[in-house]
Fold:
Amino acid sequence: MFKNSNQILHKIIINIKVSLVFFIAIIMNIIGFIANQISPFPLYYYFSFIFTAIAFIAVFTVRYFAKEMDKIMVDVSSEPKFRIAKYNYLRFLDVKFYYFIPFSMIFLYAGTGIPMIQSFRLNCSMAYALSAFTITVYFSILAYIQYISLAVFIYQVKNSDEKYLDYMEQMPANTDTLYKLSYLIKVYRNSFFSMGTLYIIAFGLFTLSGAFGVLLDFSNMFLIIGWSVILIAIVIAFPVVSIFERSWMMEIVRKLKTESVMDIRKKYKQNNSDKLQASDLIIAIWQTPKYPIEESVSLLYATISATTNLFTILIYAKELFLA
Structure:
């Protein structure tokens, strides 16, 4: 039952139309506007903009990941070096609760956020806010799970003992599958740093604005839990995983370069070919790119975003606990 549900949800996510996503977003915002007129929600327009932006980024990132990973699974179907990584990824995709895991985080955030609101009342705007929050966080957590599964996939490829891989011997970094994986990392890195910044801003508005009557004190266990999750998952874990992923991809390329060099040396010995030509080929291979794609702008954006997130949460911490 759950396996079939996974397959159905996977197909829906891959095939969802961009126009449909925009249509749903417009309808949701119209409903939110009406609900806010009936019973005003604190800082409604700020939260509406932030969560609409997060929802768009999360939905399109999840959709892109599902489509690209399906293509990569087809590309590596006959590649021994990807055998274990592919098997474990597909096995994880079939886990009974794969598409239901995000609900645990939704309950965690709702369970910590709602008790912080003094004199909580379930009215029209609050009901809309909770529904919009649920949809947004669901896709955000699903995207996070996908990113972790991508990291595990790349790590297992790096550690594979299989030597055979259909790659470009003269320029290993330009191998098509490695390019697709690197571009997927780039898309996820940019998306998650953007979502992370927006989540930090949103939670900061929620806790620091005074509009919700949140108790700013160490005794507020829910406040501590909420900020701890953001600190660990967004400010610390994601940048660390991003650094590891890039280093693992570079290690895969380095190993392929080593294989190319060993092949050239082997052919040189077997055929007694020109030593100078073999040396030139070896030098040329080591001078080829260390990474499949150019990332100077993306890395600069990631660095600025990570630094901004860190300083923002430090400023919030000062306001929360040292004021």
The chain has a mean pLDDT of 83. The chain has one domain: 2-322. DSSP finds ten helices and no strands in the chain.
